[in-house]
Amino acid sequence: MRRPQHATTAAIAGVVALAATLGTTVVTAPAASADAPAPGCPPRGEDLTEYCGELAGARYRVLVPDDWNGTLVLFSHGHYPSEFFGDFPAPHLLGNQELSEGTLTDHGYAVAGSLFQGDGLDFTVPTAVADQSRVLDWFEEHVGEPERTITYGQSMGAVTAVKHAEAEPDRIDGVLTVGGVLDWVGQFDAILDMNAATRALLTDGTDAHGDPIELVDPDDPVASRDALVAALTQAQETPEGRARIALVASLNTVTGWYWMNEERPRTLEDRARAQAQWLIGAYTLSLGPTGRAGLEETLGGNPSRTGLDHLRARLARSGAAGEVAAAYARAGLDLRADLAALEAVEPIEADPGARAAMVEHRPEGTTPSPVLTLHTTGDGGAPPSGERSFAHRVRQVGHPERFRSLYVERGAHLSVSLGEELVALRALERRLDTGRWPSLAPRALNRAADALGPDYRATFEVVTLQTFDHAPAFTRFVPPPAPRPSW
Fold first, then answer.
1. Which residues, including other chains, have CB under 8 Å from residue 309's CB and lie 6 or more apart?
2. Scanning 147, 278, 373, 378, which has its CA 20 to 30 A from the CA of 414?
3. 2-23 pLDDT, tens per residue?
4. In the chain, what are the domains?
């Protein structure tokens, strides 16, 4: 079943159709002064009060149901590249999808969140914890002291949710993430690897003007971005190009499952075409040369470094070795020659100061709060391999009992249903109530989600910007390890 979206969603659909790392879209209320506890927002009905305002230059929203259960869910949205939004406002979500805030308040939760500095666009991570802390201060002063506060991060907002719990452990009781990036330092290293491999294997190294394609500190980031997009677009039309796309995708364990409403692609060609969409939409348009230029401006230099060495071992760890070898054999290409070509690429080094600034905002796995992550198995925009590497990090610091991961068998980024989202939140609360994790067996989780009823099957797809019905699909899954962990 397809569900209608707000007019704002329809208006920006053509702009962000390929932006797989985006969150979802919501019509936001006008901002009001934060100096007074008055709602400052349009009336929401008799059962709910909405507060809107601005704190230190960042807008915030708060929803409090009349039957508030004492739990505050403090939500951090994902990455919103300014190049996709233009004159459209960034969506100010208070849950994983537009419908989530209503689901949570219907069940008694108060929800709140900052839009972050810069109207929520581009790289908000360095200021996001402070922005959320100010929202929590405001809530405690004007609404009341929560009995429990859970930070909840979506996509790159997961960095903020976990880091906030580490920064203020006495204020945060638990952490939930969906489609989360947990090691943003290592993720951007891997993205740089993919951009470098795309340039080396699919282009002659120059853009449309004959100038070098520059991946860091670019003079013309748009031209470099467009050259990489053109190369990926053309490559997916030939067996040789698709084989190389599969190899590039393996460098960050990028899946071949782009569309939420389709079954996992079964053929080499279909998987490579889907990987090309991830590489274009998530890693070239939004986080390639143009996005990296913004990151470098935020951090004062390039924070990432390439690591194109020992690629045969890395390919084996990615879980895609058989698929890549089969694609190369079908195309009649020499895989060893291409691996050698990549290993010969001149390394890109990070600016030490910029990397240190990025590491400063990286979660370290030290929060005393329990952390529960929720991820689709087919997510190529924020590969679930990050969960496995974060679990290893939590074990390193000595508290493995504090971390658990849940997986949903579905393609696309952030494509979990309202029911799956609510069941995950309740599982985390059970851990907080009892000190022990409840059963996280997929069958039990699916029964719990199914019992909520058909309205809770609503699942938003960030590619089409439409909402569809999906049956609960929790599953057992062990992702490959992240290729470039930075801990």
1. 343
2. 147
3. 343 332 333 333 334 334 333 3
4. 2-182+367-475 (3.40.50.1820), 185-357 (no CATH)
